[in-house]
Amino acid sequence: MAIRVVRTVSALRRAVIRWRGRGERIALVPTMGALHEGHLALVRAGRRRARRLIVSIFVNPAQFTPHEDLASYPRSLKADLDALADMKVDLAWAPTAALMYPRGFATRIVPQGPATAGLEDKFRPHFFSGVATVVAKLLIQCAPDFAMFGDKDYQQLKVVTRMAKDLDLPVKIVPVATVRERDGLALSSRNSYLSPDERAAAPTLYRVLTDCAGRIARGELLARVLDEGAAAIERSGFALDYLEARHAETLAPIGSLKEGPIRLLVAARIGKTRLIDNIAV
Which of 39, 67, 126, 247 is catalytic? Predict the structure, then answer.
């Protein structure tokens, strides 16, 4: 059975009002398409929380800068819709860029706090404004009780959680654990860019994170552990953007285990592909 695809706000709201009138709870899974098992884990988590499930598919131009990969970002709408139909998703919300950002659109959300932690924002200064703006629109349009976000994009998760709280949006942001390949590589739509040699090296990020987390938990000096981890990542062929230990809730820098809880976060480039990952200590 084909999934229902909605492309106008009025049709979306009619469906939401109908479900609300029956007292049914709604979960939203925001995606940019090119769905993989990580996205489907979000869908399953949403299904466990709510009677009705919306998956949005929208490649958001506001979070790409001119030199980034908007034009080449993987798109596979038919395959995505087939996968969602198999999982009995109630509705796919697939707006166009012209609908989301019509002529004259002039409002942006500029988040602070976790969005200015000096991690992704240091390398992609406009990214979280684009994310916060589109996620706020999606939450307002879909009016869900729950919105599912993956742990893999950890800073994004904290930015969205803070935004929803600060703006009193009546939604619970639900984190969902990172889904990994058998060798530890975090699933990502951008993994499709990796050459065979790059793909073979990519699990180094998770191995280094795991090793560093264990050493920090055993009480080794945090700065030394991170320096050695950074060297190991670069030896494997990556250009490292950051390997950081941050407070797991605020993303503030920390200097020792006792300042925790700690989250380790990494971003690095191999070839033309930029990968990110994180784990708890």
Answer: 39
